[in-house]
Amino acid sequence: MKANIISIGTSKGIRIPSNLLKEFNFKNLVELERVSEGLLIKSIDEPRANWRERFEKNVDDLNEFNDWNATNLSSFDEGEW
Hints:
By secondary structure, this protein is of the alpha+beta class. It contains three helices and four strands.
């Protein structure tokens, strides 16, 4: 299925046909995920479902690029402010 990219204010978007919205149970909130083929749109039944796993994955991703090391803390960092 093809869809045109349309202007929505200063952003861009696509129109999703109503039959697909119903079939995939898309409501007001969806999850977007980058995949090797492009962009995957997932239905979110419960917005907070699996939040811990998603949070931990994001923290792991950040730690991979983070050069901050806890051993670099000074006495100022360790004490109460």
